[in-house]
Design a protein that fits this description.
- Helix 2 (about 25-60) runs antiparallel to helix 3, helix 2 (about 25-60) packs antiparallel against helix 6 and helix 3 runs antiparallel to helix 4 (about 90-115).
- The chain has one domain (about 20-170).
- The longest helix has about 35 residues, at about 25-60.
- The chain is elongated, with a radius of gyration of 24 Å.
- It has helices at about 1-20, 25-60, 65-80, 90-115, 120-125, 125-160, 165-170.
- About 25% of the residues are buried.
- With about 200 residues, the protein is mainly alpha-helical.
- Helices cover about 70% and strands about 0% of the residues.
Length: about 200
């Protein structure tokens, strides 16, 4: 009976000590970072899923610039090869490689959609217009989720670097996380809006 009491007393002291040194806070904030990261991944995956249909719709147009389509498919392939998990968020090299691949895909998609301005038959295609709207919405959501992720990381990193929590972070292996960096407009959704008006058909008679 006495041993059980001593054990509970020791566990209580340990719990109080961990709470006081910020351990529970670090755990909670790190979980928030992981949740924010999951939302970023969801939106990136949604974009990946939309691209094949976009390419299929556009490549059917006569004389369409094939190099633009190749750029999109190649960029998508690179993204598929540079996936990272929540466990890699403290690795600067892996995170930078991941962001670079995603940003290159964003640029490729933006260029593809800009080129379609020269193809009235594509702009008037209902399937294309639907895909364009979905991509625009996804890019906006990506921007929002990246911002939320950065905010979660900032809170966690600030806590992990503050005294005396920094001691707890080092003892228990909590590592600071990487941010998405706003580089060449990567923190903003690409401008992929179109003039949806169908060009008037000339009277061939």
């Amino acid at each position: 009976m006495m041993k059980n009491f001593l054990l509970l007393f020791i566990l209580a002291l340990v719990s109080v000590s961990l709470y006081g040194c910020g351990y529970n806070t670090l755990v909670s904030e790190e979980e928030n970072v992981k949740q924010a990261w999951a939302q970023v991944e969801n939106q990136y995956q949604r974009r990946m899923d939309l691209i094949p249909n976009l390419v299929k719709t556009v490549e059917g147009a006569a004389d369409f610039e094939k190099s633009v389509l190749t750029e999109v498919t190649d960029a998508r392939s690179r993204v598929g090869q540079t996936k990272i998990s929540a466990d890699d968020l403290s690795d600067p090299e892996k995170f930078e490689k991941f962001q670079k691949a995603q940003d290159q895909l964003s640029s490729a998609i933006s260029r593809l959609l800009m080129v379609t301005e020269n193809y009235p038959q594509i702009k008037s295609n209902e399937n294309f217009l639907t895909l364009q709207a979905q991509l625009e919405g996804t890019e906006n959501r990506i921007s929002v989720e990246r911002k939320k992720f950065n905010e979660a990381v900032q809170l966690f990193n600030s806590t992990a670097r503050s005294f005396p929590t920094v001691i707890t972070a080092k003892l228990f292996g909590f590592k600071t996380k990487e941010y998405f960096k706003a580089k060449e407009g990567s923190d903003q959704a690409p401008d992929v809006k179109f003039d949806f008006k169908k060009e008037e058909k000339k009277d061939s008679k």
